[in-house]
Design a protein that fits this description.
single chain; mainly alpha
Length: about 70
């Protein structure tokens, strides 16, 4: 038995509704003035840089075959 008094909505219906709302907001330009719009995500850049530093450290470690 559902917790609410309204009709039960399927996952597919929720997904379609969500996509329609996102598309309408995009068409209205509601996502254009977000902070950092058009800039790379710092968290992703930091993760990539950390992974690159780890790889560099492994390459320069004594006994590494890729020196």
């Amino acid at each position: 038995m559902p917790d609410s008094d309204g009709p039960e909505i399927s996952e597919t219906a929720w997904r379609i509704l969500t996509e329609c709302k996102i598309q309408a907001a995009e068409e209205e330009g509601q996502f254009l003035d977000l902070p950092g719009f058009g800039k790379p995500l710092a968290s992703i850049d930091e993760q990539v840089e950390a992974e690159l530093q780890e790889l560099r450290a492994k390459r320069s470690a004594p006994g590494s075959p890729h020196v």
